[in-house]
Amino acid sequence: MIISQTPLRMSFAGGGSDLPAFYRRHGGAVVSTGIDKYVYVTVNKKFDDSIRVSYSRTEEVKRVADLEHKIVRAAMSKVGIEGGIEITSIADIPSRGTGLGSSSSFTVGLLHALHAYQGQYVSPDHLGQESCHVEIDLCLERIGKQDQYAAAFGGLNMIRFNPDDTVTVDPVICRKDFLQSLEASIICFYTGHTRSASAILALQSQQMEADNGHRAVMCRMVQLAFALRDELQSNNLESFGEILHENWTLKKSLTDGISGSEIDDWYQRARRAGAAGGKLLGAGGGGFMMFFAPPDRHADIEKALPELRRFDVTFDARGSRIILFR
Q: pTM value?
C-alpha cells in the first residue's frame, strides 16, 4: 500500500500569469505557499486484474480506458499501469472550486503514489511537469501551471513561468520569526460557494489574447509578485497588505465572474474592520477569501463577516510526500 500526502496552496500575487496566453509573451510569476491542508491518495494492489477508483463516487472497471475520471485515466495511462489496482482519495476541504488548488494537488499526489507503487522516485520538478502534462495536455483543462508546482514543491516560493514553457521555482528566504508573524497575520474564510476555475480561466485567456489592456494589467500583477518577493526576503511586512489590495483590485478588472457584489461587500467589510488587504483565492467567483491584518484585529474581522466560516491555516514547508510505503 502507498499513501501520498500533498498540500494545498495559497497564492498571494501574480495569479493568472501562469496561463500560456500571457506567459508565452511576457513571462509570468506568482508568489505562493503550501498550507497545512492536504489531499491524500491511496494506491493498493487489487486481488484481480480489475480497477477500482473511489472518490466522491466509486468506479469499478476492467480497463483504464473505461474510467470516467479523466485525470485518473490519463495518469494511469501516462505511467503505464493497466490494471490490478485500487485507488482512493480523500481531502481536508471540498475537492473542487475552492481556490486552494485541490484538483492539481490530487493530480500531483496521484502521480506521486503511482510512481512509488512502481518503485520509482520522482523529483518535485518532475511531478510538476508531469502533472501539468496530464491536466493541460491530456485532459485539455484550460488552466495554468502554478497549482501543480506549488503542490509538488511546497513551501513559500516565487514560481516563474517562462516563455519557453519551462517553470522555475525559487524559495523565498525569510527568517523563521518573520514567517511566524506572517502566518499570524493571515485570516481566511470559506464563502460556501464553489465554482469552475477552468471556465473563468478560459475566458481570462481569451481576453488576454485579444486585449492589450488585459495584458497590461497582468504585467502589473507580475511586477507586484516580484515586489512582494523582495519585501518578504527583506523580512518586511509593512507593504504586504497594500500589495495584496492592489493585486486584488487589478485581478477583479480582468474579467466578469472573478468577483461580484456579495464578494465585494465581504471584502469592504473586512477592510473596514481592520484588514490591510486581501483577495479571493484561486480563479475567482467563490471558494476561500484571505485577508492580511494585525492579529488583534482578527476578531473584529470575524465579527464583521458572520455569514462566513473562519478557516485557520498555517504554512507547509514540504511538498507532496509518500507517508506510507509497504
A: 0.92
